[in-house]
Amino acid sequence: MVVFGGECFHHLDDLWLFDLEQYRWIQVQTSKDKIKPKGRKYASSFQYNNRFYLVGGINSKYEPLSNAYYLDMNQFLKTKNLEDLEWHQLKLNNNEGTDRWGHISVVKDNKAYIFGGHKDSQKLVSIDLTT
Predict the structure, then answer these.
(1) Long-range contacts: 103-112, Cβ < 8 Å, 24+?
(2) CA angle 115-52-29, nearest 5°?
(3) How far apart are CA 110 and CA 131, in angstroms?
(4) Can you give the pTM of this predicted structure?
């Protein structure tokens, strides 16, 4: 299980993994020179092909964030070394429709579908996950 961000007196940008074998949470530290999503809440997330995806959300000024990231977990699943976890910003066509919050993400047939939430809530957005 993977959890990113949220709110506790301010917007969080922390990353946590739940170890199902040892039944405990592990906080993952990301070095300052690497890509990392900004703190946010009300984003949606999903996992697909050993990647954890994070879409949209809002910042501390309640401004929608129009970006998406994925955390590549392939190497980590082989080595169990937390340093092998690396964020990547997802390249989207003009970030169209991802600037929303309180929405839902669903995966089907190599695509993620984003729907609902605030701002453009009736617009269905699809993201091709094969690229």
Answers:
(1) 103/44, 103/55, 103/56, 104/44, 105/44, 105/45, 105/46, 105/53, 105/55, 106/46, 107/46, 107/48, 112/46, 112/48, 112/53, 112/55
(2) 130
(3) 10
(4) 0.89
Q: In what order do the strands lie in the sheet with 111-115?
A: 104-108, 111-115, 125-128
Read off the pLDDT of residues 41-96 as tens digits, 9 standing for 90 and up.
999 999 999 999 999 999 888 899 988 999 999 999 999 999 999 999 988 776 56
Pairwise CA distance, residues 6 & 40, whole Å: 6
Residue 24: how many CB atoms within 10 A of its CB?
9
74 Cβ contact list (under 8 Å, min separation 6): 50, 51
What is the CATH architecture of 2-128?
6 Propeller (2.120)
Domain extents in the chain: 2-128
Under 8 Å between Cβ of 99 and 81: no
Phi, psi angle pair for 130, to nearest 5°: -90, -10
| DSSP per-residue letters across 31-49 | -TTS--PPP-BS-EEEEET
